[in-house]
Fold this sequence. Notes:
By secondary structure, the protein is mostly helical. The chain has one domain. It is built from seven helices and four strands. It has helices at 21-41, 53-97, 125-147, 149-153, 161-197, 201-233, 241-248; strands spanning 10-14, 17-20, 107-110, 113-116. It has a two-stranded antiparallel sheet with strand order 1-2. Strands 3-4 form a two-stranded antiparallel ribbon. Helix 3 (125-147) runs antiparallel to helix 5 and helix 5 (161-197) runs antiparallel to helix 6.
Amino acid sequence: xxIPPLAPEALFHLxxxxxxxxxxxxxxxxxxxxxxxxLCGRRLQMVPHGRSWQMLGxxxxxxxxxxxxxxxxxxxxxxxFTLMASLFCFIIVANWLSLLPxxxxxxxxxxNAHVPLFRSVNADWSTTLALAVITFxxxxxxxxxxxxxxxxxxxxxxxxxxxxELVSELVRMLSLSVRLFGNLLAGEVLVTVMxxxxxxxxxxxxxxxxxxxxxxxxLVFTVLCLAYFTLGTTSHEQEPDHLAVAGAH
Length: 249
């Protein structure tokens, strides 16, 4: 039984940089995501067919956009929507691709060892940390754009409380990355164990559960991104949404 290790394995090196199996899988997931986006938009119609790629794309995009606009209004919702949609699509595609038999059975010979060519990208903490850092930087940028001095002031005043707020902002980034990494690594280990112990019916049941779990984790990450954006861009003075957007410009 091969339990997936915590650290990704290096396939080869480009100078001092190691190209790992999770990096290779990341580019594979990105290409599949771009392919799906192309399929959804290649033959756009005013009224799409009920079972078409365009309908699938419109349902996903429509639900995410509605979620953002319901939370923070039309103007700010469309600001954060691009980041939300990108995170959701990448995470769910990466999660669901990891359920296919491309993870594990395909190996590369590195030295005297057989290393899996692909490794689930979201079960690598460096990847989930990168997603969390991008979310943190983007939400902080928008907080400064919409609230300006008010956002900076709450890190300084009142003394003591403001510094705690600063620490909590950094902890959010850590918790966001660890939550996604821990949950998906646990699922990967569970499926591996059950496949080796009971190789017929039970693993299929766990694969179905992991499919649902991958969707939930992508949605949770996206909703938390929206929550952090909402907290950062909402004025404590309850400034109307259209005035906040006008002030940001």
